[in-house]
Amino acid sequence: MELKLLTVGLLNLLSFVNCIMWTQEPNSQKCLKEELHQNVLVLGEFEVSEAPGQKVDYVVKDSRGHVLAQRTDIAKGKFSFVTENYDSFEICFISRIPSHQRGISQEVTLNIKHGVEAKSYEGIGEAAKLKPIEVELKRLEDLSDAIVQDFSYMRKREEEMRDTNESTNSRVLYFSIFSMFCLLGLATWQVLYLRRYFKAKKLIE
Question: Domain GOLD, which positions (predicted)?
C-alpha cells in the first residue's frame, strides 16, 4: 500500500506543470534555468501584459550559448525545442523601452512543459484509435519510464560523486604521507647541519 502511494505521489509530481508569473521591470532582464536530460521535448507558452511603447524579447540558450529559440517584441505565443544533450538551459525575457520614455512594470506569465507532460496523448490516442483508459495507461507507462530514468540518472550521479570522493581521499592521503616524509627529511637535514655547524665552531664535541 505504501509503495502504491509513493508511486502515485511521484507520478503526480512528474505531471506537474511549471507555471510562473512575475513582474518585469522596464529595461531589465530576467532568466530562468533548468537542467534537462537528453532528447527531451520542451514546450513553452508565454504572455506579456501590454505597455504602450515597451517591447519584450525572449531567448532560449544552452550552457554553451547556442540559441534554441528566440523572438522579439512579443505579446503572447509559444516556443518548443528538443534537447540534444544533458545540459542546463536558460530562458531569458528582456524588456526594452526608448530612452526618452518612462516605463512601467509588465506582468509576464510563463508555462513550461517538458518530457512526458509535453506529449499530446489525445492526438496519440486518436492516431492509434485507443480508448480513453488505454490513453491514460499509456501516459502512466511513460511516467513510470521517466521515473525509472530519473532514478537511474541519480544512481549514476551518486556513483560518480562517490568515485570522485574516494579518489580525492586517496590523493589527500598520499599527499599527507609525502608531506610527512618531506618534513622528516628536512628535520633530519637541519639537525645534521646544525650539529656539523656547532662542531665547526667548537661549541660541542
Answer: 29-139
| CATH no., domain 14-118 | 2.60.120.380
Edge-to-edge strands, sheet with 76-82: 18-24, 106-114, 41-48, 76-82
Say how many Å lie between the first and final Cα of the chain, rounded: 87
DSSP string, 161-202: HHHHHHHHHHHHHHHHHHHHHHHHHHHHHHHHHHHHHHHHTT
What confidence tier does 12 reach under pLDDT thresholds 50, 70, 90?
very low
